[in-house]
Amino acid sequence: MARNELRPVVKLRSTAGTGYVYVTRKNRRNDPDRLELRKYDPVAGRHVAFREER
Predict the structure, then answer these.
(1) pLDDT class for 5, splitting at 50, 70, 90?
(2) Angstrom distances, CA of residue 18 to CA of 25, 29, 30, 42, 47
(3) Which keywords appear in this protein's UniProt record, sorted alphabetically (predicted)?
(4) What is the pLDDT averaged over residues 29-54?
(5) Is 47 in contact with 12 (CB distance < 8 Å)?
């Protein structure tokens, strides 16, 4: 299965300022804007918003 630009790899950086990053893939057709998810930040010890960085 070839990788293409429809499902690029994106970094999700914590908004808590800890520098923690999740790496995931997203579907550009369904999510053309920047992705924002609430995930667990182990450095902060709680769930915070993670925003896509380019």
Answers:
(1) confident
(2) 22, 30, 29, 9, 12
(3) Ribonucleoprotein, Ribosomal protein
(4) 95
(5) no
Per-residue tokens: 25: 């893939």
| pTM (2 d.p.) | 0.85
When computed from its CA atoms, the radius of gyration of the chain, rounded to whole angstroms, is: 12
- Rounded CA-CA distance 54/47 in Å is 22
Tell me how far apart the alpha carbons of residues 44 and 4 are, in angstroms, rounded to a whole number. 34
Measured CA to CA, the distance from residue 8 to residue 25 in angstroms comes to 6
Separation of alpha carbons 44 and 6, rounded Å: 32
Cβ atoms of 9 and 53 closer than 8 Å: no
Assign 7 to helix, strand or coil: coil
